[in-house]
Specification:
By secondary structure, the chain is of the alpha+beta class. The strands form 5 sheets. The protein has a 5-stranded mixed sheet, with no helix packed on it. Strands 12, 13, 15, 16 and 17 form a 5-stranded antiparallel sheet that branches.
């Protein structure tokens, strides 16, 4: 008997939770039973749409329904739109689908929490009520490398050293990996690939490169970049076409080059000056030797 009395509080608790669990605990009022975003992850600086399914779970009419999407400096309605949508009246158990067009700030990262407020009046008496839910908007990483400017030296005289000036940068919010610049066309060998490595977000590159061409005359090349994101996905920029003219100097070929020990190249004028200097030095040596012999 004492054991039974000791277990009575436990039995009463079990009975209480059983009875409470048997009641209908479905939320009343306006609820959002489903929502979707037009992409798995909205990219920053882009537009998107949230589709929201609203249901009136009251057993009576609700009126003057106003839905407000809470915005911020990271998440806001498309220009010209508002963050409030007026629905009006919903009958008992009626469902309504609405859409909200939004933009993502360039500073947004990760996951954005978006509270949605619903304000309305219930039944003939018009008692005011409200309800809110939060939805999540994942912001995807944008891997984007762009070319700002390409300039190829015009009317060059040395086919092996034509200057290419490049301005480019990582405009995304994630790392760019294995960046390569491709030169295809009249370059020596038909194609040249310049490896630029990995580039952090926001970094801009300003560099000059020497391009070697095959022979003289009008030359055309196409320049584009290839790179990868953190997942190894390949990206390729649009190719840009550049032209130049390799002029052939009188009395020699424009691609005839003498390289110094430090890698410096000399043109034909420099070669002539060098030969003249050697000749003068040779004459001076002969004169000195002849005077010495006379003594």
């Amino acid at each position: 008997m004492k054991r039974i009395l000791n277990k009575l509080p436990y039995l009463f608790c079990m009975l209480f939770f059983f009875l409470m669990g048997s009641e209908d605990t479905q939320a009343k009022g306006l609820i959002i039973n489903d929502y979707s975003i037009n992409s798995d992850a909205a990219m920053y600086g882009e537009k998107g749409t949230i589709t929201v399914n609203i249901e009136n779970t009251e057993e009576t009419i609700v009126t003057d329904v106003l839905v407000t999407f809470t915005t911020s400096d990271l998440f806001y309605p498309v220009y010209g739109n508002t963050n409030q949508i007026y629905i009006g009246t919903l009958e008992a158990n009626e469902k309504k689908t609405i859409t909200f067009d939004f933009e993502i700030s360039e500073r947004a990262k990760g996951i954005l929490i978006l509270p949605i407020m619903m304000e309305y009046y219930i039944g003939p008496e018009g008692a005011s009520d409200s309800n809110y839910v939060t939805v999540t908007v994942p912001v995807g990483d944008l891997c984007e490398y762009s070319v700002k400017g390409l300039t190829l030296e015009q009317n060059a005289t040395n086919a092996s050293q034509v200057m290419l000036s490049v301005s480019s940068g990582n405009d995304g919010n994630t790392m760019v990996y294995n960046l390569n610049m491709h030169l295809v066309g009249d370059v020596l060998g038909g194609e040249d690939i310049i490896q630029l490595g990995d580039v952090e977000p926001g970094v801009q590159l300003y560099d000059d490169y020497y391009v070697s061409f095959d022979g003289n005359g009008d030359k055309t090349i196409q320049v584009y970049f290839s790179y990868q994101d953190v997942h190894g996905k390949e990206y390729v920029t649009d190719a840009q076409t550049l032209t130049t003219n390799i002029e052939k100097k009188a009395g020699g070929s424009s691609d005839f080059v003498i390289s110094g020990a430090d890698g410096e190249s000399y043109d034909e004028a420099s070669q002539i000056i060098l030969l003249c200097g050697i000749l003068v030095l040779f004459i001076i040596v002969i004169v000195i030797v002849m005077r010495w012999r006379k003594k």
